[in-house]
Hints:
42% of the residues lie in helices and 19% in strands. With 360 residues, it is of the alpha+beta class. The longest helix is centred in the middle third of the chain and has 42 residues, at 142-183.
Amino acid sequence: MKEAPVATDDDRRLANLRSYEIAGTPAEPAFDAVAGLVAALCEMPLALVTFVGEFDLWVKSCIGDFAYRPNRATSFCGHAIARPADVFVVEDARADLRFYDNPLVAGDPRIRFYAAAPLVPSEGFPLGALCVIDFVPRILRENDRLALTLGARAISSVLDERRATRRLDRSLVDHRALAFAACHDALTGLPNRAYFIERLEARVRDADANDRAPFAVMFLDVDGFKDVNDTQGHVCGDAVLVAIARRLAKIVRGSDVVARRGGDEFTVLVQCASDRDAIARLADRIVRAIAAPIHVGKIELSMTMSIGIAIASDAHDRVEELISEADAAMFEAKAAGRNRFEFSHGNGRVRTPSRDTKRS
């Protein structure tokens, strides 16, 4: 078995650089401000903030005229990050054996002086450099060295703050995503069974405390859904459920809650059910909407739905009773011919068929 290659210091440095997600990003005021201040303090015509990749050099900030695209091999910054504890200085590049034939020295822009403080954020890896450049030989003054050092520290602090903020933002996004997944159905995006029970329990408590208008529970089941799975496959069946979920979400009122209970079963919490006729009209709209053709690719399917309805009363102090009564009424709707709805009142159910709705 071939052993995995051992990570080098530069491998770890590059991994750390990637964690900041800074390489290749456009200029930003925070970096420009530091580079501009250092250029002014050092009285230099050019200041750069760079990040050193495996082969490339990214210029994050440029104060002055510098239109060139050096790579790591030809850059001075590649040398600067090799000495992360010091300010790297080249007083006369034409007289330095490391740089005299460098294309940026021998040709345009004909760099002569270079000084840089490495950018070393909290984890200790040199990611790039804050550098100043001139086109005549110079000697680095102590005040220039101090300006570069403090500027590099400021930029390193900005990097750490940006990464911490980004991680916090992602943590919040991940938390919200987990919270959404915990209470929503993965296939349809509707609230799931647990969330529906939670909302229904809250509605029961609210009714007990405030004596508000009664509410109702609808239990919905897609007629003949097993046949779709058996003849067209589960992928098609899933597409049908998604289409039905979207239609239900459009029909119910904003205050109502429609959820997928599981399989081909759905439930609806009708928040205000004082008008029995209004509930019947809502149920009839659902029946008619589901009966409209559903297209999955080139396949056209005609589905129907049976609905049971239980209106809450003083006798209901447990949500399971309401759901059970709505479920029983739904089975009566199926027994009565499907593609319809039935009301339930406790143990004695009263049949109230919908208007004739034929299969499409």
